């Protein structure tokens, strides 16, 4: 039975049809998106782009597969900052809600003055560029960026399960099977990044998040870099630095395989293989290369760790002729369904608890910024020219 619509209802009906049409167009162009949650968050934002910009972004997706929206026609005013999820040297990450759809995201807010003072301009610009060009099941998605006079803003997917670090500390240490699951997902992410000549350089439990189904999402690409061969910047976390970084010999992709060996050890033991009260003590132990394995370690896991923590890069697993395939074919990974992992069909060992999409229960509580934190002595925008791509 047909029903008569008043003029207002007709307008609403037309708007709904237009949105539905746009939504169908977007969804038809989301082939290759590796998980429904990310695709949905991207679609929700893209619906509020102008039609010409919408088509441009969908065309760009076909070039590099990323979910990055260039020149968003929505802005900061369309988001409400909620709770702090994490803090860093020159900024913090907030839970934020997109007011038009009630969808939750993570907003990374960086103070320009601090980024400049700490000489991190190149790293931040590199982080934005790299995340705007990648898309992988186990790497956090960057949707868009903004800036105002004081801050840089990076809109990322909200990964509700919190840091792997928190889950590891709660458990004390992970079982062999749990460690193998997380390691295998990270191997696939490293393999993908290296295929694009990107080195990550900051692998550690604090930079690994768990999504709603317990799968890995690598975050914080502040030290990531696209390289041709080698780079000489000293950066990273002391316990995870490869010998060639400490020696300033120039480094490249092999540093990520070294860091993977450290990570496997830490997940199995509950602590890293090289630690000391000060960074120089850590560096000395890394260069000495003596590893004390706890007695409960699986023999195949020990063998893999030894092959990854090889000081000679030319002999380090992952950097041999077979590349990442050598790592995947190691006997510790025997029986791993690599395609099933990539498709996220393998059940994760930890399913993070949450009550609703904006639940922050898996993150630590932080003091919220005060008005003093938000105010600054700088007037105007003296640093905009340093961040032209934001």
UniProtKB/TrEMBL annotation:
Question: Catalytic activity annotated for this protein?
Answer: L-threonyl-[protein] + ATP = O-phospho-L-threonyl-[protein] + ADP + H(+); L-seryl-[protein] + ATP = O-phospho-L-seryl-[protein] + ADP + H(+)
Quote the cellular component terms of the Gene Ontology held in the record.
cAMP-dependent protein kinase complex; cytosol
Q: Where is this region: Disordered?
A: 1-37
Keyword Amino-acid biosynthesis carried by entry: no
Tell me which EC number(s) this protein carries: 2.7.11.11
Q: For bias kind Basic and acidic residues, which ranges apply?
A: 1-12
What molecular function does GO assign, one term?
Answer: cAMP-dependent protein kinase activity
Name the positions where ATP binds.
Answer: 108
Low complexity: compositionally biased ranges: 13-29
Which InterPro entries does the record match to this protein?
Answer: AGC-kinase_C, Kinase-like_dom_sf, Prot_kinase_dom, Protein_kinase_ATP_BS, Ser/Thr_kinase_AS
AGC-kinase C-terminal domain residues: 334-390
The record, for Pfam families, names: Pkinase
Query: In which domain of life is the source organism classified?
Result: Eukaryota
Question: In this protein, which residues make up the domain named Protein kinase?
Answer: 79-333
What UniProt keywords are attached to this protein's entry? ATP-binding, Kinase, Nucleotide-binding, Serine/threonine-protein kinase, Transferase
Q: Which protein family is it in?
A: Belongs to the protein kinase superfamily.
What name does this protein carry?
cAMP-dependent protein kinase
């Amino acid at each position: 039975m047909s029903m008569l619509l008043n003029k207002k209802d007709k307008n609403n009906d037309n708007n709904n049809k237009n949105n539905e049409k746009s939504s169908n167009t977007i969804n038809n162009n989301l082939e290759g998106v590796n998980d429904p949650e990310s695709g949905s968050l991207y679609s929700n934002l893209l619906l509020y782009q102008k039609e010409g910009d919408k088509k441009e972004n969908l065309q760009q997706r076909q070039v590099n597969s990323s979910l990055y929206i260039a020149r968003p026609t929505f802005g900061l005013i369309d988001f409400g900052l909620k709770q702090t999820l994490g803090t860093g040297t020159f900024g913090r990450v907030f839970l934020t809600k997109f007011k038009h759809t009630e969808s939750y995201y993570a907003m990374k807010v960086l103070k320009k003055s601090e980024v400049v003072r700490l000489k991190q301009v190149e790293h931040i610009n590199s982080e934005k560029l790299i995340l705007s060009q990648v898309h992988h099941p186990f790497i956090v998605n960057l949707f868009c960026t903004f800036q105002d006079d004081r801050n840089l803003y990076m809109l990322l997917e909200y990964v509700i399960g919190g840091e792997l670090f928190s889950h590891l500390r709660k458990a004390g240490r992970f079982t062999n099977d749990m460690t193998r699951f997380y390691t295998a997902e990270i191997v696939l992410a490293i393999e993908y990044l290296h295929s694009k000549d990107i080195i990550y350089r900051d692998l550690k439990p604090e930079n690994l998040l768990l999504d709603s189904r317990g799968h890995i999402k690598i975050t914080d690409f502040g030290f990531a870099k696209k390289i041709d061969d080698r780079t000489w910047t000293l950066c990273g976390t002391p316990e995870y630095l490869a010998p060639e970084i400490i020696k300033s010999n120039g480094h490249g992709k092999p540093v990520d395989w070294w860091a993977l060996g450290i990570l496997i050890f830490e997940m199995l033991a509950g602590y890293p293989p090289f630690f000391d009260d000060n960074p120089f003590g850590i560096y000395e132990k890394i260069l000495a290369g003596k590893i004390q394995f706890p007695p409960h370690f699986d023999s195949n896991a020990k063998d893999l760790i030894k092959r990854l923590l090889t000081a000679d890069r030319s002999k380090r697993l992952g950097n041999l002729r077979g590349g990442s395939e050598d790592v995947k074919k190691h006997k510790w990974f025997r029986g791993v369904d690599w395609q099933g992992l990539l498709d996220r069909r393998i059940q994760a060992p930890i399913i993070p608890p949450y009550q609703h999409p904006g639940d922050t229960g898996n993150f630590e509580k932080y003091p919220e910024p005060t008005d003093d934190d938000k105010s600054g002595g700088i007037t105007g925008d003296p640093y905009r020219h340093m961040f032209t791509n934001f």
